[in-house]
Give the backbone structure.
Amino acid sequence: MTTLHLNGAEAHASFLTQRAHRAAYCDFLVRVTPENQREALRLYGENETEFSGLRVEGALDLSFLTRHLRLRYLEVVSATGIDTSALSGLENLRGLRIEQPKAGIDFRWFPMPEVFVGDWHPDNRGVEHADELRQLRAWKFRPESRDLASIARATRLEWLQLVQTSIESLDGVGHLEDLRYLEVAYAPKLTTLDALGAARSEVRELKLERANRIESYEPLSAVPFLRRVQLIGCAPMPDLQWTQGMDRLDFLSFVDTNVLSGDLTPLLDLPALRNVGTLDKRHCSHKGAELNALLQERWAL
């Protein structure tokens, strides 16, 4: 985390930073703590155009936010049981990061949110009204539906990251037509990837980590624009025949994800593949370095 002093205030780079083409680019946030609250807010108020928002650390009463309704970016961290009701007036908010909220958030409070990062409260609501939401990076996403139905109407999502989630399937992903980056980690109940294949999703990069009940990777071959796949500590695969037809795939990593047959030669038939990440195993036909050397040799021709 980058820290610097700007106009007398301690400032941090933000987790909410997006690509520069966004109209409300997030740069530096003023750090507010129980010890420096009065001075930090004074400096923020006097130099509001120099900062993108506030990073609130520690157990603070957030009612002071009613004096900063033009706030664009807000991080609330290092506290438990955060009262979210104080956020309801922040109609200009573009990005929010929040840890351990006490109650849910109504996304209708923010007409133009672009980024949400943080712990997902089961009472969160109104995501379907977040028409500009581009990034959703949520921890503890445990919906009643056990799939993506509750966020499937956030149709402009480009990046979805779910960590420590109870989902069993990716049903609903077909509605996320702009989705390009999908990450699911620590998903012990995820069993099927069928929704990705059925929807012919336009996801470009997929990362699955610690999803050890996946029944088949075959649906990934039906994702037409998939270029990068990472399978970290996931369920073993019988073989790599499922990669056939993945003509755009240029990177595949299966670290701690076993190929039971040991035959890695199907990867040499993928026309765009440039690099493979894997741990060497005795039963496998190639060591990682050997396989990558063959791929590089092919591209050097």
User: Anything to note?
Assistant: The first helix runs from residue 37 to 46. The mean pLDDT is 91. Helices lie at 37-46, 194-198, 288-300.
